[in-house]
Amino acid sequence: MTDRRSTLLKTLGLTALTLGGLAVANTLAARAAERRYPPEGRFLTVDGVRLHYMEAGNGPPVVLLHGNVSALGDSLASGLFQRLARTHRVIAFDRPGMGHSDRPRDRAWTPEDQADLLARAFDALEIGNAVVVGHSYATLVALALALDHPRTVKGLVLMAGYYFPTKRADAALVAPLAMPVLGDLLRHTLSPPVSMAMMPGLLKTLFSPRPVPDHLTESFPAALTIRPGQMRANAQDGVTMAPAADRLQHRYADVTVPVAIFAGHQDRVVEQEEQSGRLHHVLPDSTMHWVPDSGHMVHYVDPELVVRRIGDLSAGKTAPRIVAHR
User: Fold this and answer.
1) Where are the transmembrane segments (predicted)?
2) CA dist., res. 127 & res. 255, Å (int)
3) DSSP conformation letters of 51-74
């Protein structure tokens, strides 16, 4: 009995040392990532939340919102931000908890919560009547903005979105990371190195059927996405996505602004025929753009096409209901 107890104590001590070492290593790695990818924009505190954003250009306002496990650097890596800045006032936000923006623990941070916060940020920055562009998870945030804060939105561009609830294995996998105590332990120890090891496969899935762009390693801050704080935000977004889609789907018919929907038939993250195709039928004032040879990252395939459609919405121009691109 004494030998077993001694073995157990040694095992527990070794486990504690290992986890403590991982926590220290992950903290150092997070600080190194923040030094490598420092904030390039400005900060704005709204409702006690510090938001990081970038702004450039003059003209009609356009707001860019990135998806999950991402940051505003996505709009820079794809070239959307730079192209839009030639003719528009373009503002890209790090959504709460992502990139260099904070996410306090005092609320659930559903798409509606994020839309409410962004609407206050719009007021502070004097952004009104903007074309709001959302990718992936952020399409729900963009729709919530149009529904709950219609005066802020002139039109929507929704790319590779998720709009109707389905059973998703990825939500179940990340659910432990969103839990109190257990999630804190995992995010500070085991999850960052596991996520880093999985990152190449994730990027390959996101960009499939096309290759991952050569410049992405330097231009997109992937290391920021696996910091313990952002992993909490990633997990929260993952588990709130389907319930939010279930709530919002009953309100889509109330969207009063024109909507441009972009999707790729070969999306391996979201079934776009089921999601984007269905949304197009629900929204009477929408155009459906099927981007050929494209998966989830449709804005990397043809950013000029997305920019042209944003320009059309800014100028109040109409387009055919379904647009096939070659």
Assistant:
1) none
2) 19
3) EEEEEE--SSEEEEE--SS--THH
CA distances from 315 to 62, 91, 159, 222, 312 (A): 12, 18, 20, 35, 5
User: What DSSP element (H or E) covers 261?
Assistant: strand 259-263
Residues 178 and 236 sit within 8 Å (Cβ to Cβ): yes
Superfamily holding 33-324: Alpha/Beta hydrolase fold, catalytic domain (3.40.50.1820)
| DSSP letters for 111-172 | HHHHHHHHHHHHHHTT--SEEEEEETTHHHHHHHHHHH-GGGEEEEEEES---S----HHHH
d(CA 225, CA 33): 9
Domain ranges of the chain: 33-324
**CA nearest neighbour of 59 among 81, 87, 92:** 87
Inter-residue contact 63 to 93 (CB < 8 Å):
yes
Q: What is the DSSP string of 238-255?
A: HHHHHHHHHHHTTTGGG-
Please state, in angstroms and rounded to a whole number, the distance separating the CA atoms of residues 178 and 104: 13
**Per-residue pLDDT tens digits for 155-175:** 999 999 999 999 888 888 888
Residues in the chain: 326
